[in-house]
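Following up on my earlier message about flavin-adenine dinucleotide. Here are the inputs again, as you asked, copied directly from the submission form:
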Amino acid sequence: MKKRAVIIETKNGVIKDANFGMIACASKGDNTLYAFIINQSGEIFKKELGSYGIEHIVDICIDSDNHENNEKYEKSFNPILFSDAVVQAIKDYEISSIFGLTTPMGKEILPRVAAELEAPLVMDCLDVVKGFESSFNSDSNLDFDLAKTSLYSGKTIATVKVTGDIRLFGIRPNVIEPSSKIDLSQEQLSNITVEKFVAKNRYAEQSNIKLIESRQGDLSGNDLVAADVIISGGRAMKSGENFKILNECANSIENFGISSTTVGASRVAVDLGWVPYRMQVGQTGEKVSPKVYIACGISGSIQHFAGMKMSGMIIAINENINAAIMSNCDYFVEADLFEIVPQLTKELQKERQKS
Ligand SMILES: Cc1cc2nc3c(=O)[nH]c(=O)nc-3n(C[C@H](O)[C@H](O)[C@H](O)COP(=O)(O)OP(=O)(O)OC[C@H]3O[C@@H](n4cnc5c(N)ncnc54)[C@H](O)[C@@H]3O)c2cc1C
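Thanks, got it. Here's what our run produced:
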């Protein structure tokens, strides 16, 4: 049976939701599914990962780190050491397909691992499947060999065929629905293994690679790529200060129990220095797939669409009925965003008070 591994990402000691769609993709067909967790205690995630179908958890650590403080290790992320540790674990556990997320962390680790193993990598996958040849050749070494990924700013979906003994796939966060959670019995839970894999720090002796300092960026707001609801502002916001009305609206949505709501922006709003680059959605920003995307004062250029067209539902607020976004969304409001957004926030707050 094929061995596949998913590289799990956490934030503040909690597994990011986007991992569960990746697990659903990796668990298709006959396979043994491993979860690689780097510099964290795998034991605390056993129940959660097990309920999504993970059978083995490999708690990868570098040298003899202890795991008293999960957050501390997330902050000391070193892509070179982490990638090398993953390479060692892949070899040790004889993994044939490795899945990660196309996130900043995945973009650091997956290409390095692929280069080290001389293995093919497809990033930003929308799905990964077995092709005809692999599906009907049960006793061969063939595993997942077809990856769907979007090209040319999302204008086309390419199906890429990969070959080789080891294959890597970077999954676009939130495009694949997680499978339903299984209620594990005590026996099923006890069958899930958690092993510690101590990777050699092969770079420790090399003077040219040294982690000098790691600085935490601005953590306000939630991850764009992991968000269920994104409310974005464009040129029409007029200033960075005005983004506070979007923040207030996002907070009111969160108060309804949608914990991963956040604020995004078009490139114009970023280029004008109103908001930081990490908030940019689009071809040269983040590619997002929230359940709901609310575009406020954004015209809907192809470059912006390239980043948010996979959203479950697109709502546009724009005062120009002829703006491209108005004919490419599920719902639109033809109005001034400075009237509609505060009104929406107020209505949400009123509803919240009632419940
Ligand atoms: C190589 C390249 C890469 C790019 N990458 C990206 C990218 O990653 N992301 C991205 O977003 N762009 C990207 N762009 C830029 C892109 O082409 C557009 O210029 C940009 O998306 C436009 O931003 P906007 O919609 O905020 O502004 P505009 O196009 O100026 O649209 C503003 C909209 O606001 C509406 N409006 C004005 N006032 C109000 C109001 N009070 N209430 C409601 N609506 C109002 C207007 O009707 C208009 O539709 C890229 C461009 C290039 C060439």
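One observation from looking it over: The two ends are 51 Å apart (CA to CA). Hope that helps, and feel free to reply on this thread.
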